[in-house]
Amino acid sequence: MIVIFSGAGLSAESGIPTYRDTGGVWEKYNMEEVATPLAWMQNRKLVLDFHAEDFEYMQKCQPNAAHLAIAELANHVDVVCITQNIDTLLEKAGVKDIWHIHGRIDYQKCEWHFDIPPMYSDWQCDYKSLINEPVKLGDLCPKCGKHLRPDVVWFGEAVDMHVDDLYRIQNQVDVFIVVGTSAQVYPAANLLKFFQNVPRKYFIDPDPNTELLDGFTLLKGKATKYLPALVESLKEELA
């Protein structure tokens, strides 16, 4: 089994901007105003407008060579993709087993949908659904009547790390590939430690933090340069 952990750098070459890099999203927007639970309470319209822009832009983008290489690899071996990205370019490329730990831009959920149960369970609503257009101000949950919101993880919210699934596959992983992420944001960064005993590990990024990469083969560059070549090499070994 191969596990691929990806971040914004995987989709950057499809035209989706990264968040923290120079010229990234957080240079244009104040994340505290558009991507936190407090921002939602203070100005729903601003938050929804920000995510609507993301939705419209991401819907137009297409998979790049790195996404397609992952899909090709999955035709030859079991591949699990764990991604921080909220876009659906891996799905568009044909990848099947994808864990979106920060949610997906093409889903909506009730504002009272919690991955961690609140103190009073009567306050929780489990409504979630696929959408073809972004959530708008005034869109209400058909189940409980509260407002709908994008199904993405905001700052201050719990990341869906699929903990039970991680432990299920931990001892089955032969190759661990990290691509397009600094792997410095927690709790996602814990994946490097979680898979530290995997026999073969690769890290693909233009500007990696080498202090974190003990035991990794470092491929310093863009995803579209190194991932297709790595996939071809792995396919030859599996042939």
Task: Give the SSE layout.
Elements: E1 2-6, H1 8-12, H2 25-28, H3 31-34, H4 37-42, H5 44-60, H6 65-74, E2 79-83, H7 89-93, E3 98-100, E4 103-110, E5 128-130, E6 148-152, H8 163-169, E7 175-179, H9 190-194, E8 200-204, E9 217-219, H10 223-238
Parallel strand pairs: 1-2, 1-7, 2-3, 7-8, 8-9
Antiparallel strand pairs: 4-5, 4-6
InterPro entries: DHS-like_NAD/FAD-binding_dom (IPR029035), NAD-dep_sirtuin_deacylases (IPR050134), Sirtuin (IPR003000), Sirtuin_cat_small_dom_sf (IPR026591), Ssirtuin_cat_dom (IPR026590)
Binding site for Zn(2+): 110, 141, 144
Keywords: Acyltransferase, Metal-binding, NAD, Transferase, Zinc
Q: How would you concisely characterize the structure shown here?
A:
This protein is about 35% helix and about 20% strand. It is built from ten helices and nine strands. The radius of gyration is 18 Å and the shape is globular.
Overview of this structure, please?
The protein is built from ten helices and nine strands. The chain has 239 residues and is an alpha/beta fold. It has two domains: 1-14 and 64-102 and 159-239, TPP-binding domain (Rossmann fold, 3-Layer(aba) Sandwich); 17-60 and 105-152, SIR2/SIRT2 'Small Domain' (2-Layer Sandwich). The protein has a six-stranded parallel sheet. Helix 6 packs parallel to helix 10. 36% of the residues are buried.
